[in-house]
């Protein structure tokens, strides 16, 4: 779970060794920490022709306490800022050797008005001038349209092209800088997605495309406690990523119902008690001991949750691996992985939805995996189950929309856990370094992404698969 | 362009060195060669519950001269075979140490009837028993349904899960064995897709998902000359992948109109003359010298093609690279790459379609790239253009459907060309080995995939992006 190489290259001696012999130099990622400002610094704004999001973007940045500077591609930003009484100025490209205080925290490009490939030139102008000015662990966000919702083939083409740009920028930026694309339907609320992708909470999310629809959004009264008053079921909550999810949801104000198997009861109890210790004002959380694969599990779980008045959030995190190549895999290894990771989720959700245990306006978030996207040697069972999880999410979007319920998946890449700590060193090092952050992610990175998708601000985000992989090289 | 390592590990001495120190052991891929049977050997058949494709599958295999054996999951195959008077038998799992003549050329699994995750078990049974029996350069094909066309969420989920299975099998199989998934709409004609994916012509296509719709198909009178009587425009035809495309299209019977820039005129002329030498019965092919990026190019090209009576196939292969990180990239490098690789295609196709230069029932095939999918360091311009090409393909599907025109993209991975020969050795070796074939592809692999999509048998294949990458590890 400890990345000794990361520590080494971030020591003065290690850094000079790494530089001189050309080793990867992963940055210690800035993550959110209690008592440290979540947002600060300057955002540089660029735009293509006819940008549409300056007003909500300016309102958001002002609300976050960030200032802005406008690149020459976005000079229309300045009158908007003036009208709102916000400080702004022109972006000046950083001269070589300039002091770090010339740096900006974020580059934000409004590409929503781009309707032809020739207009992509504006992206070149902005990122050519500005990319060297981004601080370490800074953020690149491109705002565009969903290609298939464009009315002309030329607009669809140009909007689809943005993916190639955003992903390439993520591979060039280095220094813990992430690069993501948000596809905004006209009139959609951008705050939920943009806050997250600008925040240190999204430290390990890069190279992703997030789509926001026009579902009306109720912004949380307190952005630090967006889940206040919500009840959240987390399966597999005893340890690892599940425990991190429980912690982050509790930190955001949720009452957590942690579920795990009987064998993990002690660890589960400790995890749940630790939540109470850390956030005493919220009182005790709830532990449910059950094997989700048992035939009676859906009934048992639904009954327990109904007795509390139902829930608002379901996080399907419980999962197992039984790795072997298909030729050597036992039938039991196949069946148990498919059942725990996929079929059990189906049975449980069917009952939670039939009996309205999950409230209208609720959230379902399922944990998929990079293996479900790319396939993996020795994991036919696991990859099949995790590809199925993506299918579940996509298949349920429309039926759940009528009830205001969103359903999304997160797909972790290489995350530092007890599971990955058992991988042989050579493979582990390859897994850690083969991404744009040159390091593995932490369980909290997955948990933050889930907590974000669970928030009221994400009412317009459904059917998305968000990888938490540091923009892993590995994909399909 | 020469992979010396591939030659080395396939020598007796090299093979023993590679085995003893654990080096990758790429297989010399079986490719189609004049005078060698394209199809032979045995296909082992597996199936989930309620398979729907036994009849067309049996007819196809019989037509190809292949025999079949039925796995216990597909015992319903035997009466179908008997009804058609086809030889068939039961599949017997290969015992350890059995002679190579126990091997099968292909594993084909009919998963179209799978409607629930619990039924995925049938895939385990078949591939567990059969994967060791596949000969080198053999084929794995799973036949399923398009998830989003399934009526129940459970069926959608299970069908989506097949992707994880197929991709994992591709990573486990080794020995030049490919693994692909075909999503078949009920009633769609499977011959075009299945023939290609069973053939040595698809040597470097693995880990792909191909979707077939129900558009009626006219099967070619001669499967070796499916493009007889067709005229095909190939841009960038002078050298490399473009020249290979011209050769393969000519081999399939097409009259090729090769286009390239004035600077490449000599090479273009030689390429076109070589076609005439190789296939003298087709007479002379046509060279057009033009810079596709020139403002007058669409008119020039359209006029030349109209004078011949129009065309049936357009292959947008011409492309350039001008690699630099965005901070160091010149404006000219950005503009020229976007223009040549993307905007010029748009201008040309608009005119070819407006003036009906491309006949009804025609084919458009555009060359994208792995960089357009995953993004690439130093290629913001190229990756943006190639992501845009994917957008073009997807955006034009519905408008072209009314005219019976299909549009698809191929996305090459690491292909051995003069361009990749200039990559420094270390990077080149990484690029070559980081895929399920442990080697780069050949230009002919891209060309064969394009010729396949151009054929009359592919009337039901449109809007697809087919990677020719040996199932590269790199993806998005």
TrEMBL record, chains A, B:
Pfam families: adh_short_C2 (PF13561). Belongs to the short-chain dehydrogenases/reductases (SDR) family. This is 3-oxoacyl-[acyl-carrier protein] reductase. Gene3D superfamilies: NAD(P)-binding Rossmann-like Domain. It comes from the Bacteria. Residues 230-418 form the Ketoreductase domain. InterPro entries: KR_dom (IPR057326), NAD(P)-bd_dom_sf (IPR036291), SDR (IPR050259), SDR_fam (IPR002347). SMART domains: PKS_KR.
């Amino acid at each position: 779970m400890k990345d000794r190489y990361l520590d080494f290259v971030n020591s003065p001696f290690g850094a000079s060794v790494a530089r001189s012999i050309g080793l990867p130099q992963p940055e210690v990622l800035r993550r959110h920490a209690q008592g440290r400002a979540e947002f600060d610094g300057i955002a540089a704004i660029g735009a293509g022709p006819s940008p549409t999001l300056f007003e909500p973007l300016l309102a958001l940045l002002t609300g976050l306490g960030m200032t802005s500077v406008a690149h020459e591609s976005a000079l229309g930003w300045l009158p908007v800022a003036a009208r709102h009484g916000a400080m702004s100025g022109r972006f000046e490209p950083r001269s070589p050797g300039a002091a770090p205080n010339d740096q900006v925290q974020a580059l934000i490009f409004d590409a929503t008005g781009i309707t032809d490939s020739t207009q992509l030139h504006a992206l070149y102008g902005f990122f050519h001038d500005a990319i060297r000015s981004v601080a370490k662990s800074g953020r690149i966000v491109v705002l565009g349209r969903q290609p298939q919702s464009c009315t002309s083939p030329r607009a669809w083409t140009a909007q689809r092209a943005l993916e190639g740009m955003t992903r390439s920028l993520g591979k060039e930026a280095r220094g813990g800088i992430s690069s993501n694309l948000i596809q905004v339907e006209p009139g959609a609320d951008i705050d939920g997605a943009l806050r997250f992708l600008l925040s240190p909470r999204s430290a390990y999310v890069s190279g992703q495309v997030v789509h926001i629809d026009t579902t009306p959004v109720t912004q949380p009264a307190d952005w630090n406690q967006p889940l206040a008053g919500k009840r959240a079921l987390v399966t597999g909550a005893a340890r690892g990523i599940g425990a991190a999810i429980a912690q982050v949801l509790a930190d955001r104000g949720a009452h957590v119902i942690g579920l795990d198997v009987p064998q993990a009861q002690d660890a589960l109890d400790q995890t749940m008690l630790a939540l109470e210790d850390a956030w005493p004002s919220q009182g005790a959380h709830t532990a449910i001991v059950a094997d989700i694969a048992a035939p009676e599990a859906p009934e048992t779980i639904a009954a327990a949750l109904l007795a509390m008045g139902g829930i608002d959030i379901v996080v399907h995190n419980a999962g197992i691996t039984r790795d072997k190549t298909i030729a050597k895999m036992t039938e039991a290894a196949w069946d148990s992985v498919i059942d725990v990771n996929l079929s059990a989720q189906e049975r449980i959700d069917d009952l939670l939805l039939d009996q309205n245990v999950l409230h209208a306006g609720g959230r379902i978030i399922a944990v998929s995996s990079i293996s479900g996207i790319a396939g993996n040697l020795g994991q036919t069972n696991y990859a099949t189950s995790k590809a199925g999880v993506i299918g579940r999410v996509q298949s349920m979007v429309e039926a759940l929309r009528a009830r205001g319920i969103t359903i999304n998946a997160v797909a972790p890449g290489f995350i530092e856990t007890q599971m990955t700590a058992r991988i042989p060193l050579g493979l582990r090092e390859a897994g850690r370094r083969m991404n744009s952050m040159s390091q593995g992610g932490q369980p909290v990175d997955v948990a933050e992404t889930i907590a974000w998708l669970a928030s009221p601000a994400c009412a317009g985000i459904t059917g998305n698969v968000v990888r938490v992989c540091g923009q892993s090289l590995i994909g399909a």
